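Session log. Operator J.P. requested a structure for one protein chain; no other inputs attached. Running the standard single-chain path with token output.
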Amino acid sequence: MTLVQIIVLALIQGLTEFLPVSSSAHLILGSVVFGWPDQGLVFDVATHLGTLVAVLVYFRRDWLDMAGACLKPPVTPADRQHRRMLAWILVASVPALMVGGLAPDFVEKYLRDVTVLAWTTVGFGVLLGVADRVGAKERTIESLGLRDALLIGLAQALALVPGVSRSGITITAGRFLGLAPDAAARFSFLMAVPIIAAAGTFGIYRVASGQAGIDWTQFALALGLSFLAGWGCIAAFMALLRRVGLLPFVVYRLLLGAALLWIVY
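Structure written below.
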């Protein structure tokens, strides 16, 4: 990979991993526009690690509170709430981890296609708009229960299909369940940690198995850029969400899907 390719694709991955707009759509579109080959396994591992560190750093207080509540007997209502939140995050992660573990080859072989990507970008963009339009706005993240976690987790499993967007479909599910936009986004980002960690671990295993060589300079650059872009993206998205809501992202998805459909047809 050239230096320009590393910088552009790492920034795209970091900026779009947490937005409800599909990072895979942007990576494929960028490759088509610039004529770049597939970025490869090592790059994917580096950017996954970078975005994982970004979400851990941004929500470090949440993770420290949850870890602290689990390392001692619960004393206060806050301790019990932190324990429940960690339990809901783990429950919500199970469907995607199961599907991803059972059908990775199927997704790579049959679904990683620009046509699929285009239609899912449009279709799930419309669904996000509907959810934001009809969803209630008063529920907080503390009101989540087991049923909510399971439903959002099942929705997250759909994100294995390119173009769906992991953050997009989980925020959509949260809005349909009545979560306020910022609450749905916060739970979506917290849910990202087990999934990104699992994807990164699988990638590291494949690299360690000799399926790809490593240029450590490129690896460090991709990791660092995706971390900075991911952290900045989360901060900006949470701030914008309170001001402008989800409509701009719905419109953006529709425009991106239209661009992909134009490339396909």
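Operator note: Residues 3-264 form one domain.
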